[in-house]
Amino acid sequence: MRRHTVILGAGATIATIPNGDRNGNKSSVMNGLIEKLNLNDVISNVELNTKSKNLEDIYSELYLREDCRDVVKELEKRIYDYFASLELPEYPTIYDLLILSLTSKDVITTFNWDPLLIQAYCRCSGFTENLPHIFCLHGNVAMGYCEKDVEFGINGVTCPVCESVFTPTKLLYPVKEKNYSKDDYINKCWEATEQYIEQSSMLTIFGYSAPTTDKEAVTLLKKAWGDLESRQLEEVSVIDIVSEDEMLDKWKDFIYSHHYKYTNDFYSSYLGKFPRRTCETIFATFLMNLPADDTRGFYEGMSWDDITDILSDLLIEEINTPNGENYPCTYNRN
Questions:
Q1: How do residues 292-311 score in pLDDT, each as one tens digit?
Q2: Residue 138: Cβ-neighbour burial (10 angstroms; 0-12, 13-18, 19+)
Q3: How far, CA to CA in Å, does 48 sit from each of 32, 45, 133, 136, 183?
């Protein structure tokens, strides 16, 4: 079974709510969070050594200073409360399309704290239960966890085993030396992510900049992906707004030769053009030399009815596919 792993960074959330969430609130990469979240008043009385305006650099310094413990606590509270307040617009977003472009054999791993991906998952479950797994590598304001029974789900929901209300997951804030094993939920997400990446035939990196404070994370991802010589048939897709040369330099340890696709938007990616059949389409196109029809995918401005029209035949195919077998190469048919 061919699996697809998608890695999300802050750029994916920005692309999802470019005009703000349901209430007009916007997300941001770390370089803009201090101003975006109006955090200047929290740090205004602190004499910082760093000249950076990046939250990662500022938080990393504050975290190591004994005299800034109260400032750190207030900063964390403000960050948590802001992200917890974000809501998806009523219309379909890129996160909805991303969820619906994958199936239960696939996984989305996200470094983002915001709840938008989880909200999208909840409303997309109205289309089908055949949806990807989601692992939150830095925690998430929408996720809860039961450490006793190693179960997780939406905040406020009860554990299916002990029926206790899930405990909100902690957020892993941007210190330079992160400890991914300290928190049980985050540790379990990393273990599962590494396993899925090892088994994946496709890897998509969407809006993730691999910041300096995530060096250990990138190392763990690369370890799971393995040696490039053993990945000669796999395909890597990157969705970002940087130049292609910058992208190639950043992800060169993941890409074998020319086996990659680079796009500046979701709709031009494999996920957008071949929803729910990315792995099958790439296999048929490059290994069986069957041309693919890229005119039947998702497009900007879709309504919920438009999405239903595109997905209906695909969902029927999935119901009729025996367990353990690959889905049909839908987009490679004549």
A1: 999 999 999 999 999 999 99
A2: buried
A3: 17, 9, 41, 31, 29
